[in-house]
Amino acid sequence: MSELIKDVKMFFPALLEGAWLTIELTVISLILALIVGLFIGLGRISRNRIIYRICSIYVSIIRGTPLLVQLVYVYFVFPDLGIELTPFQAGIIGLSINESAYLAEIFRAGIKSVPKGQTEAAQSLGMNYSLAMRRIILPQAIRNALPPIGNSAIILLKNSSLAAVITVGELMHQGEIIAAATFKNMEIFTMVAIMYWILHYPISLLVDYLEKRGDHQHASAERH
Amino acid sequence: MLQLKDIRKTFGQNEVLKGVNFAVYKGEVVVILGPSGSGKSTLLRTMNFLEVPSSGDMFLEGESMLYREQNGNKIKRDPKEWNQFRMEIGMVFQGFHLFPHMTVLENIIEGPVHVRKQAKEEAITYGESLLKKVGLSDKRDAHPFSLSGGQQQRVAIARSLAMRPKIVLFDEPTSALDPELVGEVLSVMKELKEEGLTMVVVTHEMGFAQDAADRIVFMDDGNIIHEAPPEQFFGKNQPDRVQKFLQRYEGGNRL
User: Fold this and answer.
1) Predicted local distance difference test score (pLDDT) of residue B71
2) Is A153 helix (H, G, I), strand (E, B) or coil?
3) Which of A8, A63, B19, B76 has the least C-beta neighbours within 10 A?
4) Does residue B94 contact residue B87 with C-beta atoms inside 8 Å?
5) Average pLDDT, stretch B4-15?
6) Contact (CB, 8 A) for B225 and B239
7) What ranges in A65-86 are assigned the alpha helix state H?
């Protein structure tokens, strides 16, 4: 038992360092993916055929290929195209691109879930498309989309472990390095798993809260 | 004020409006009656571009809403230009469609502030006076979902009035309401008539048509087939279709 505690104490700092990098990867990728995803999502409801097509193809390619392939592609192929990236930068780009396709679909569904009457009410006040989107539709759509965005963020957090393959020193990679050096596979990978679980937990609580809030509002809206 | 000339509207194979001519004059209240499927809601929605006519033209104070002159040629207006007319033509919906993420007052000042670019203080002052008019001053900071249907519809009326429209369209404003809430909305509408607001109302409330309309327009099968002032419309010697329609309301909504 005391040996176990000793091991935990010894490995924890390195793993914690990796956990920080995992958080950085997740947060930065999520922010970038939210921005890109919003525009791709808007493109997927655009009446402009070309924009719609481009965005649809983007979503199809990204969702239709494994994240692992995408990460490896960014890290190993982009340099051949003259774009040199550190592992961390490649990880951010790969994860952001991957996440943006899923978020685009979440935004699209969120926008579709806003009743048509809202658009008509906005139009009848003389609002143009972008004003109606900004002031009326998106605030409601984003609210509807928050729980699925949270779920997607949890997946992103766990998926960031794949960045280990391109040598980003995040939690999984740190675990692998220490395990390879010490052969204490059980101790280390159990710690890694627990740390991922702890990292996900606040997001999970937030999703639960958002879902409850959503239910409550739907219930009051349907009373009429 | 608002004039429609030979308006046609087709959905696929289905011709819903078959060359409608219609006009409403300043300060007039016109009620459109007709069986369901007669095209009366479509006609009303056309006046605000929520449906775009397949052919024909519409005029607001003599200006064509669908075409503009350029070098002597009539060219179709870009949809972006519709908004200048929509600002002048208010709309009240059957389903209220208040903005749920805003308070009552925010709903009301949204158009004036962001579309008309009015100063916020000015919009708030006018918005508060409108809330007083519809009897909901105490709900200023409430959210729509906490209001009854009748209250929501009165807010929706205030929201459309906040744009200071030249004319307000009402699309079955009381059809989604519980019977006991219909009266409060109709009485607000009657008050607006007293103040001289120009209104076009699609409704099934025969009592309102009788009391408040200056003119009743009867639609059937995509056409206006009869027009008369209420005394005459609800009187004797009206066309068969009108008689048949009214008979269904005998002993019900009517009187």
Assistant:
1) 83
2) helix
3) B76
4) no
5) 90
6) yes
7) 67-72
ipTM reported for the complex surpasses 0.85: yes
Going by C-alpha positions, the residue among A39, A53, A91 that lies closest to residue A70 is A91
Q: Taking CB atoms and an 8 Å cutoff, what residues of chain B touch A135?
A: 110, 114
Q: Is the distance from CB of B9 to CB of B53 less than 8 angstroms?
A: yes
B70 or B96, which is more confident?
A: B96
- pLDDT digits over A106-133, tens only? 999 999 999 999 999 999 999 999 999 9
CATH number at residue A152: 1.10.3720.10
pLDDT band per the 50, 70, 90 thresholds, residue A3: confident
Which segments of chain B does DSSP mark as H helices, in order?
Answer: 40-46, 79-86, 104-114, 120-133, 149-161, 179-194, 206-212, 230-233, 240-247
How many interface pairs between A and B have CB atoms less than 8 angstroms apart?
72
What is the pLDDT averaged over residues B184-203?
Answer: 94
Domain limits for position A121: 2-222
Q: What is the pLDDT of residue A88?
A: 96
Residue B224 pLDDT: 93
Rounded average pLDDT over B70-82 = 87
What architecture (CATH level 2) is domain B1-88+168-255? Answer: 3-Layer(aba) Sandwich (3.40)
Residues of chain B with CATH 3.40.50.300: 1-88+168-255
The C-alpha atoms of residue A68 and residue A169 are separated, in whole angstroms, by 16
Pairwise CB contact (< 8 Å): A220 & B145: yes
Q: Supply angle C-alpha B121, B158, B198, rounded to 5.
A: 115
Provide the 3-class DSSP secondary structure of residue B33.
strand
Q: Is A113 on the interface with B (CB under 8 A)?
A: no
Element (H, E) at A139: helix A138-159
The band of B254, judged by pLDDT with boundaries at 50, 70 and 90, is very low
- Token pair 């870009």 in the structure block, residue: B78
A89–chain B Cβ distance below 8 A for any pair: no
Count of domains observed in chain A: 1
